[in-house]
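Q: Could you write out the predicted structure for this multi-component system? I'm mainly interested in how the pieces pack against one another.
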Amino acid sequence: MRVTYDPPTDPAAYRFCHRLRARFAETDAMGVVHHAAYLPWLESARVEFLRAAGHPYTEVRQGGQEFPVAELAVRYLRPVRFDDQVAVHLVLAAARGASFEIGYLVEVDGLPRLTAVTRHAVVGPDGRPGRCPAWLAALAVPA
Amino acid sequence: MRVTYDPPTDPAAYRFCHRLRARFAETDAMGVVHHAAYLPWLESARVEFLRAAGHPYTEVRQGGQEFPVAELAVRYLRPVRFDDQVAVHLVLAAARGASFEIGYLVEVDGLPRLTAVTRHAVVGPDGRPGRCPAWLAALAVPA
Amino acid sequence: MRVTYDPPTDPAAYRFCHRLRARFAETDAMGVVHHAAYLPWLESARVEFLRAAGHPYTEVRQGGQEFPVAELAVRYLRPVRFDDQVAVHLVLAAARGASFEIGYLVEVDGLPRLTAVTRHAVVGPDGRPGRCPAWLAALAVPA
Amino acid sequence: MRVTYDPPTDPAAYRFCHRLRARFAETDAMGVVHHAAYLPWLESARVEFLRAAGHPYTEVRQGGQEFPVAELAVRYLRPVRFDDQVAVHLVLAAARGASFEIGYLVEVDGLPRLTAVTRHAVVGPDGRPGRCPAWLAALAVPA
């Protein structure tokens, strides 16, 4: 893994928050949210973070760039249940060269449920590695 | 609804069968397969049916056609559980003009779990309605 | 199908509205939302409708009742795309005996994308058919 | 992360293989399999691995144990496309105390697409940490 960020469980370490409800469809036969169902939540948080930064992902894509997930690391700490009100905290932890890292804390009622990091490639119109846009690099929090 | 086929619970009424295992990820907090998780099973059965007919859906798409779902009707009869060995029976019930209908019976251990019908549009390279390919129409079972 | 409600494309026919964003994870290789991904949206709209009626589904379930989907009918009219702002309009169309029907209109920018009906069984703590709660029957719109 | 295993891209390092087809429902608007859709594949591979070892997961669960995912690490190397014939290679990399690690290589046509590791907790009937069953520990490959 080339992921370098170690996501803390303190919400104060994050710079953006996306809120949602856990769907019934996202639960499994253990009665809690399935471990794969969290990934679209992290993705939605990224999409809202980019929108709030003035660069909606639809515009990024229309401009010929995509940010596919290159690496993913998740620590599942406590379950989330159907109908829980979830906060997905997010920080752009690093952005350099052709990739960037985002850290996440998912919590309910102030209790951490998981932490995660995604590393994203920057891919240009030709499918080749591109460079992080300057506006994105500027949003990264110094380590 | 323009769907006309009434899918029976007798497997003998069907012409193709696709088998699979119910995944844990497909269950929900009621302990059974979530009602939305069956739809990809029907889709996989269609894909295998087209392959068996000598027209893999990847080739259909490369040829510029797509068969998007235009209508869907499902009757949920009994639950399916994690790890159940599932049979998806399928019949091309009608194919005329710019659409076709497929009927399905999903059963486990000989007990019907759901029946369904999908009506599909035939869409050409320009996104406009096309006509059912002759090879497809030839596979339809007379009513 | 025992579904009787024919869901109109006029939002004025509905009594409740749930809003959401189409997620990237919900799209497929045709570039639009996959036909199965709408079902959790309908489910979320039901959950919010019950909450707004003062009977959160978590409480219904704690009280020993469940409302599993017994039938489903969907007409796909136009695609929804990633990041679209979606309105799911809902009406409790009928509630009698041991089942009830809900109608849906999904629209984006005032253009209908799909209509749907779900029929739900009322199941009691013993897994046996129950009767529609009086509070639910009272929410049904006369035909 | 407490995950210690570094999953190689050489299939020879793995001890079990589960094969499947990429479903259309698993693709996204980038035209390839969505990064979250691989997780149920890894889960299915685990389920088949346990079955092949003579301990189907349904029996493990009936015996009061569950193996929830505690940590997950994925490296996405190349995309998988609709209808690709996928091999999920798996190895039980470590099993000690109350958790175990599984490594995965997902490949198509001999080309690696992703590597992953999951760390699982062993949870007993009371929801408390249990110990790895001896039969499971015996399947672990020495580092």
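A: Regarding packing and overall arrangement: Helices of chain D lie at 38-52, 57-62, 134-137.
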